[in-house]
Amino acid sequence: MKVCILAGGKGSRLAEETVIKPKPMVEIGGKPIIWHIMMHYSYYGFNNFVIALGYKGEVLKKYMVEYASLNGDITVNMRTGEVISHGNYSHDWTVELVDTGQETLTGGRIKRLAPYVGNETFMLTWGDGVADINLRELLAFHKSHGKLATLTAVRPPARYGHLVFDGNQVVEFSEKPQIGEGWINGAFFVLEPGVFDYIEGDHTQWEREPLERLAADGQLMAYRHESFWQCMDTLREKHILETMWESGKAPWKIWDN
Fold it and tell me: For residue 85, what are the contacts with CB-CB under 8 A and spacing of at least 6?
């Protein structure tokens, strides 16, 4: 099954980082956040990736081309320039990198991936968010209802500490918990190829007309994820993820190495 990752946005709210790299290449713990996302999918056995490129896509291409060499043993023939990889790196990944346009919106990027997906169920997420979602359970849920689209619904983290009062006395304090009410689109989609018919073209935003029409047609289901989820839209959120990683208790790190 193909896993599509949208990696073409400019990440303007991370401008200090994204002047020289696309947002999915911003690092957490010395690794690009897209690596963390791919490790998550790979843990559940999903190793075929299609990455939609846009802004500074060449940085992502270079990283993927060099990944095996940088993470395994190689022999370099200094006379001919030949590089031989000895294949002792751990990831059995196939990565297709697709230029989907500098200004293409999310729906347009998804539609441009149609030839790479074919007539098969596929997964889709953004290149800037991590979670501890059980992807096998997500896929089973999608298959159980027979609709065209499943999104993962999450409760976003609160920005500030949560207080519960008894009069003026604080009886409960939680530092930035998942909020108790309200659900939002957390990405981590499972989709049928029929969703491409809902996308008009490059200037279509996936989160608007396509999802609105899928919902109106009764073709959109929500997998409710109650546990950890965090996007990285701002430097503050990058710091939150970095702190979690450095603590050795990052909730999304479900793999061993």
Answer: 68, 69, 72, 73, 74
Spell out the domain ranges in the chain.
2-246
**Structural contact between residues 254 and 43, judged by C-beta atoms closer than 8 angstroms:** yes
Report the run of H or E that residue 43 belongs to, with start and end: helix 33-43
The sign of the CA dihedral 183, 184, 188, 194 is positive
pLDDT over 60 (residue 201): yes
Taking only the tens place, the pLDDT of each residue in 116-148 is 999 999 999 999 999 999 999 999 999 999 999
| Token pair of 147 as six digits | 């609709």
C-alpha separations of 257 from 91, 121, 155 in Å = 11, 29, 29
Residue 135, classed as helix, strand or coil, is: helix
CATH fold of 2-246 reads Spore Coat Polysaccharide Biosynthesis Protein SpsA; Chain A (3.90.550)
Q: SS3 of 2, please? A: strand
